[in-house]
Write a structure and sequence with these properties.
mainly alpha; elongated; 76% helix; 261 residues; 11 helices
Length: 261
């Protein structure tokens, strides 16, 4: 019960503490307007070039923008503790590290899922996108998996934030890498050979492909392999993040740099 309380209640309290002081209006440009603008940009470029269709760009870019809260919010829950001089208090608690930090990931996953859904719903209402009613349960699951996978990368990014001065710069770089390598607006098959070989190791690649197939009417059983691979990629980054967090925590204690900003 203690572990469950740390995982659920502790994660929610930490998330609220990091962002509760912000005005809710800041969510509008960053998590509603920006994904819509990106979707419109690539959808109309695709129309002009005669490449792909609206559904292709909506699914890719909607899931891509789930990375914004998953990367930045996950990193901020760790980097913010350091800047607020409370990280040492968190790390000296007897609580196990896995529920302590994975609990902080749960609200982030929900946030990323909501941002992706904004893009999908916008595509349905404004662009030429039609999703069969029977496909929605599978699509919602795929979007959840995509958000969780990106949050795993965000956890690794948050661990690096223990050492670097500004984690937002790294977040922008990772977001752009996902945009280019994950098949967001250019199909993985159309990427140069070396980029296509690297692409499966990035979060979102398998989830975007699965979302496009589901939106075309495929059943969950038809894309379960893609979903499992996406879960594996996310778990790999989450495990790397936890290990890196533990190692950097130890190094920070040795060199008295735990809360240096």
């Amino acid at each position: 019960m203690t572990t469950l309380r740390i995982l659920l209640v502790g994660g929610l309290m930490s998330y609220r503490a990091m962002f509760n002081w912000l005005s809710p209006w800041i969510l509008i440009p960053s998590m509603i307007v920006s994904p819509i603008c990106q979707i419109l940009l690539f959808a109309y470029i695709g129309r002009s070039a005669g490449v792909g269709n609206d559904e292709f760009y909506v699914m890719g870019n909607a899931l891509n923008y789930a990375a914004i809260p998953c990367l930045f919010a996950m990193s901020a829950t760790i980097e913010g503790e350091r800047e607020g001089r409370t990280l040492s208090v968190v790390l000296t608690t007897p609580a196990a590290r896995i529920p302590l930090f994975l609990g902080r990931a749960l609200p982030v996953i929900v946030n990323g899922w909501a941002v992706a859904m904004v893009g999908v719903v916008f595509g349905l209402l404004v662009l030429d996108v039609h999703i069969p009613g029977s496909s929605w349960p599978a699509l919602l699951l795929v979007i959840t998996v995509a958000s969780a996978s990106c949050t795993g990368l965000g956890l690794a990014m948050g661990a690096v934030a223990l050492r670097v001065r500004e984690g937002a710069v790294l977040g922008n770089v990772l977001f752009c890498l996902l945009l280019v390598f994950s098949g967001v607006s250019v199909a993985v098959d159309d990427l140069p050979g070396w980029m296509a070989a690297v692409s499966p190791w990035f979060p979102l690649t398998h989830a975007i492909e699965a979302a496009r197939e589901v939106a075309d009417g495929a059943a969950l059983a038809d894309v379960i392999g893609l979903v499992v691979r996406e879960i594996g990629v996310g778990a790999l980054y989450a495990a790397a993040g936890l290990l890196l967090l533990r190692w950097l925590e130890d190094q920070s204690r040795r060199h008295a740099t735990l809360e240096r900003v």
